[in-house]
């Protein structure tokens, strides 16, 4: 009898915790309670894969490479606004604003509502709010039938103006509607915007896992290039309070990981499913305090080597997070949505000079967005140097086949370009590497992996 009452009281405590959980801890439902963290995974589809809704069969490799470079440079410029040497309070508010729409490289499908509605969304570790187009949306051209209908879902709830989710929105992007519903308007770098209601819904994942009361944006108005976009929404995986990982973090040990297959697909894993599939040891480097508190995930870069030769690059003090001491080259945003790695001018110049000294192939005119290209094919990359990024406490060696990209027939270009923004470690450098974000410990772990088997 005592054991019965003990079990009953424990269950009652769990139910109370779930009932009063804040916006940063969405409720989880499964067939039965579990004493440990849960795990689940999503398939990532590259935007240029034939399986992607963004796939354009008429696009050439050169056109796709150029578009990837321009997207990467654009994202780097946006990230600069969140990492400038301004007071921490200003950084946190700016860092939650979204990047230009459609600037991500990997897509997932999400299931939302009751009954569930599935849709495509761009994965973005550089923004927080998850949102999708909702009926009615007269400005969402050509996608009326595929939109989420909040009136058809029994679990849809609008968020009030005093809700924690509403107050977590940047002050300049939230407003209170006449019916006391929290509204938002995200304005992007190109002048486009997405506006609508902040709401909560049920998100469904594999193995019968679902999360209740997840805050998301229900978009009823889109303008500019966003209104012509072919993907219905964004999954925000940044570090801010409204991001998906922040809301479900307590159920998944505040941990997620991904493994990217070049130009095709990959896996995104949470919690207990985020287990390193390899046999070697993982390397670890700390996420900065700003990376944990704000939207972006920030690492510290001490130096860079090309072909095993250390460059001893002097620190750049042009962009320093408030309250942080300078270490080596400085802060780097690690980003799943940027194709290329971008480096500030002086840092890039040192890398380019050493790569040019090491590569003996003929130079090729660079396509738009690139700077150092050679007349070579993929098979020739065995003669090209690897580039090692010496992060704080861990060296990340990017082999030649991930340090260069095909940018045309018989043209290979360095997958690193210079930027007037900030240093960004792009996803080409992360291909076939298991990358784990442990937000509870403030650590990023990584190891080379065959991501086709992860």
From TrEMBL:
Gene Ontology biological process terms in this record: proteolysis
Keywords: Aspartyl protease, Glycoprotein, Hydrolase, Protease, Signal
Any Pfam family: TAXi_C
Peptidase A1 domain location: 106-447
GO MF term list: aspartic-type endopeptidase activity
GO CC entries: extracellular region
Domain of life of the organism encoding this protein: Eukaryota
Annotated coiled-coil segments of the chain: none
InterPro entries reported for this sequence: Aspartic_peptidase_A1, Pepsin-like_plant, PEPTIDASE_A1, Peptidase_aspartic_dom_sf, Plant_Aspart_Prot_A1, TAXi_C, TAXi_N
Secretion signal, residue range per the UniProt entry: 1-26
Active-site residues from the entry: 124, 335
Protein family: Belongs to the peptidase A1 family.
Listed name of the protein: Peptidase A1 domain-containing protein
Record organism: Nymphaea colorata
Taxon lineage: Eukaryota, Viridiplantae, Streptophyta, Embryophyta, Tracheophyta
